[in-house]
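Technical annex, item 7. During the second reporting period the consortium partners agreed on a shared format for inverse folding records so that results from different sites could be compared directly. Each record opens with the tokenized structure and is followed by the designed sequence. A conforming record, contributed by the partner at site C, is shown below for reference.
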């Protein structure tokens, strides 16, 4: 008796309205059992694919006859069998079969679809390898063209002093004006250049209290201190950095300061310049940097925060007292610590001469000799510090003998008249 039901579950004969494409669709791959090896999987998938090919051919023939005549011949009773799902392959299994044809043969038979994939993958990889070899060959052939091709046609001498100009960023000027106390050591040339060239890296904060109804971005000194440090102590800094930063800081204050006028002879810039020259002229300026620096910081802030004007007597008492206390605490000799301590010779020339004599005795080095450049009040042979470093930063009256003794002011601060350098 002929069957009345199709393998798809519907009554025979199937009409041309049946969805044959859905019946021929390949099912989703299934996960393999834990104990199934690659060879067993290949065997199963091979048999499943062969069966699916037969099913597809049978279904296609049945569909063609039904749609062309309405009734299939007696030899074609039904559509093909239900499509079989394949077992999944892992990436490692596929890579092993692609890499080694011998391995592929051992775990065969390989299903036709998988075999086509393996062959195409090998062809693709072989093509890439060939392109790579060709590129390497071309590179070797072009190498002789590069050899000897670089010619220095315009030899130039590098000037170690030629660098991009230093400018004071607006954020740093505002930090001084609004008394945010930016660290003095943020004003070295390198850090000013970095801040100028990388403004986006400078931390800022909003402040709406500067002017009614306005908002302004200010330098966030608290955050910047985490990266660049503060100037509370001189630890980690050198006298050369103090000298450089002080010059730049003074320039910033000069930009901000109002010019003195007949009604007000004082300005922040003028007072700060006197302040800096005072500390630069201290005996033992270099070696006692960390001793006198806290006093310099304190007096600098008094000028900027409380509008204190420079008074040489007050500054002298603060500095000499601190240095003298340090010497006593450290068991050192009572070396003069201010011009007032230099003895009975009260003349300015006698004081300066005595000061230099004492310092050279401390250093066990003879006073420098050689021609002097009296036009700009500097010694020609005193422009270089220790290790040959040029520490002349353009401050008038700087006597940096062997990079140790710091500044000298060759103008009488009371009369403004020029005084000649003395030894």
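Designed sequence (site C submission):
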């Amino acid at each position: 008796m002929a069957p009345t039901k199709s393998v798809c579950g519907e009554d025979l004969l199937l009409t041309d309205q049946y969805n044959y494409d859905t019946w021929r669709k390949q099912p989703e791959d299934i996960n393999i059992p834990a104990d199934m090896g690659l060879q067993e999987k290949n065997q199963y998938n091979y048999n499943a694919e062969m069966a699916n090919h037969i099913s597809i051919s049978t279904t296609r023939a049945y569909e063609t006859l039904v749609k062309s005549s309405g009734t299939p011949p007696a030899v074609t009773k039904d559509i093909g069998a239900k499509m079989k799902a394949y077992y999944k392959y892992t990436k490692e299994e596929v890579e092993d079969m692609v890499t080694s044809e011998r391995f592929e043969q051992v775990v065969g038979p390989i299903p036709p679809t998988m075999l086509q994939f393996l062959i195409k993958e090998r062809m693709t990889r072989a093509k890439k390898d060939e392109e790579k070899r060709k590129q390497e060959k071309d590179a070797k052939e072009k190498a002789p063209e590069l050899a000897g091709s670089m010619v220095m046609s315009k030899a130039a001498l590098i000037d170690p002093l030629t660098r991009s100009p230093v400018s004071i960023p607006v954020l740093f000027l505002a930090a001084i004006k609004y008394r945010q106390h930016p660290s003095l050591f943020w004003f070295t040339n390198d850090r000013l250049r970095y801040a100028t060239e990388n403004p986006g890296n400078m931390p800022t904060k909003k402040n709406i209290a500067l002017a009614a109804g306005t908002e302004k971005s200010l330098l966030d000194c608290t955050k910047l201190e985490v990266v660049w440090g503060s100037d509370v102590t001189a630890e980690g800094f050198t006298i050369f950095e103090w000298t450089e930063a002080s010059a730049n800081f003074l320039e910033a204050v000069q930009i901000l300061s109002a010019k003195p006028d007949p009604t007000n002879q004082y300005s922040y810039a003028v007072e700060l310049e006197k302040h800096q020259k005072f500390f630069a002229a201290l005996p033992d300026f270099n070696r006692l940097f960390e001793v006198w620096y806290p006093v310099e910081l304190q007096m600098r802030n008094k000028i900027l925060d409380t509008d204190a004007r420079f008074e040489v007597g007050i500054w002298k008492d603060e500095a000499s007292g601190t240095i003298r206390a340090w010497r006593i605490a450290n068991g050192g000799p009572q070396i003069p610590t201010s011009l007032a301590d230099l003895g009975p010779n009260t003349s300015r020339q006698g004081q300066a001469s005595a000061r230099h004599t004492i310092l050279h005795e401390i250093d066990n080095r003879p006073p420098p000799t050689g021609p002097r450049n009296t036009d700009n009040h500097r010694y020609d042979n005193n422009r270089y510090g220790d290790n040959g470093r040029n520490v002349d930063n353009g401050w008038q009256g700087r006597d940096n003998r062997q990079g140790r003794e710091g500044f000298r002011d060759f103008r009488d601060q009371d009369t403004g008249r020029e005084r000649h350098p003395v030894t």
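Residues 170-342+384-403 form one domain. The longest strand covers residues 204-207. All partners now use this format for quarterly exchanges.
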